[in-house]
Amino acid sequence: MKIRKRILSSILALLILPVTLSGTATAAAPKVSVDESAYVNLDYYGTPTNINIVKSCNLNGNQQFTDYGEYEKVSNMSNNVVPTMKNGAVSWNLNNYKGRFYYECTPKKGTVVLPWNVDVSYSLNGTPIAASKLVGASGLIQIDVKVTPNTKANMYYRNNMLLQMQTIVDMSKASSVDAPGAQVQTIGNKKIILFAALPGEKDTFTLRIGTNSFETDGILLTMVPGTLSQLQDVKDLKDNIDTFRDSMNSIYDSTNALLQTAENMQSGLSRAKSGLSSLDRANSNISVSKDSLFDKSETALADLSKVASNTAAMIPHINEGENAIEDLNYDLNAMTKTIESTKTELEKYKASIKNVQDDIEELRDVVKDVNSKSDERDELLQRTRSDIEDMQADLENLSDSSSDLSNKLNAVSSDISTLSDAMKSVSGELSGIAEKYLQGIENEELKKVLMALYSNIQQMLSYVDSTLSDLAAACDSTSELLDQTSDISENGKDYLNTVNSSISLIEDYFEDFDRANEVTDDMLSEQSEILSNTSSLLTKSETLIDNISAVNDTANKYKSSSIKALQDMGTLLDSMTKGLNSSQNFLSSFESVLKNSSGDISQGNSDMLKGLIGVLKQSLEGIKSVPTMRKANDSIKSTADKEIDKFENENRLLYLDPKAELISFTSSKNPSPRSIQVILRTQEINKDSGNENITNADSDAQDKGVLYRIIRVFVKLKQAVVSAFSDINQ
What we know:
Protein name: Chromosome segregation protein
Structural class: alpha+beta
Keywords: Coiled coil, Signal
Helix content: 55-70%
Strand content: 15-25%
Signal peptide: 1-27
Oligomer: single chain
Coiled coil: 325-408
Distance between the termini: 24 Å
Order of helices and strands: HEEEEEEEEEEHEEEEEEHHHHHHHEH
């Protein structure tokens, strides 16, 4: 802190020297250039009692110009010309005047607001005391000058004005001097005490003097703008700090988003893990039950073969039925002729009808035997379809879980990539800042603190980058496993869809077969009824003999359609037989494939599911560390914000802009002055004490010019500063 104060005091001293001397401004169209100096008289305790502003003008050939401000009075310090004052404007008409022109303005109360408020207190041997009682006092005198930034001042003054306090102690009249944090220079038997404050900085300057007879010419304070070109680095530093803070905030927001995503994945990963565990158990159950399924499939295939054989056996009966219809029609025609010709053959015909009825009943028994197998067949197909639906549901759940997990992994991978790029950008910016500014810091303690902070941030960035790399690798591995899971799931769906389609086809075949049986049974039933009626007709031949001709005509009418129906049924049964044989061959081959591959499929599913469960378990374990990472992320941002805010709150140095235009003390309407400065002095404490106006430092030197009078105010201070810097260079 002491070193920093000394450096700032040196800078301020250098700033004061060029401010008090005017240069020559150049412009395409010369205008009046002005240097403004505000002289402020303070009482013992730092309260302003009088403010005067001296304006030094380089006319640059102009004889008329206007100044703006709210003034109590305006005094010409160069000649006898009286200005015209109206509505806050002071107009000068200087006929044939050459050289620099000086005039003094006394602003109205409250129109000039200084960037600092000053509060001075005194104590003697540790006891507070009134300043007027210190004249000739003996003991340890302590003077505390408290400077507080004035928030009502113009923002330019608050951001760009530097404060320096200086006083000279005659060591021939003092036994000791103590000024903590000040720059102390010795010139003969004089000690020059210099304090400094940055823009917007609040500070207390403490001066302790041991003396037998105390007196002082007052405390001198100066406020000047920081316009050295070297101070441009301060503005660049402010821009870099703002860039660093923005980047830090981006990293903080991105990291929090990534960590939030990871936390949000926890429930999904837990569900995925639970789902995979269920699939693993289902895979085990399927593996255990496969032998039983294969046994049932053997039985189903055997039954299917029997059904095909029985269906094939029905074809000759259908052909025989066709022949029977031909014969029946022929016999019916012959019978009709016989009945019509004679009734003697009725008994023989009844016997023939009885034989035909017996044949029909036997045929119906065969049909019933076939139908008795349909319930067992339907039950087997239903169980097979139920097992396939269960397997399809399990595969759908696996596919949904894999897809959900894959989407979240893709989001995490994208966030990791974005965050990694931001981390690399911050690391590069930190390296540039450290390389650019650490070399220019002469305070070793400050440099060590900044280097330690830089090292800690780099280590934390490296740790976060390593963690992100591990997370990216884990996401890639998990994504590959999910791709394999998706392929297996899709293949399983294809297999099950094929089996399901085959079963549906088989069911269609059996439905057609059942409908054919029903038609055949109905037809045989009708034929039996016809024969019964025919028998009844024979017994009632006397009544029905007249209707025989009509019956014969009806039989002749439906002969061709009946034969066609039997032919179509034969074709249907032939197709069903071929379909059943093909289905039996396919299911046999499918069963063989399942038997040969069941071990590999079961083991592959088991290994894959166990691997995925392990990966998800490790991912869940990793997510448990997210709160720690979030806490570390908050700590980094909090520390960086705290350190930057602390420096910005202590002062407004980072807002200093050496290229900003100067602002007139009296009015914003005035052009930018070439230089501005504020000189403040507290009331003297001596036997001849009086709060003399510091603008009248040399009242009897009017004939020597106003420049001489102004310079006399600072002549001793300049000599002391030059001597002090000469000692430093040596």
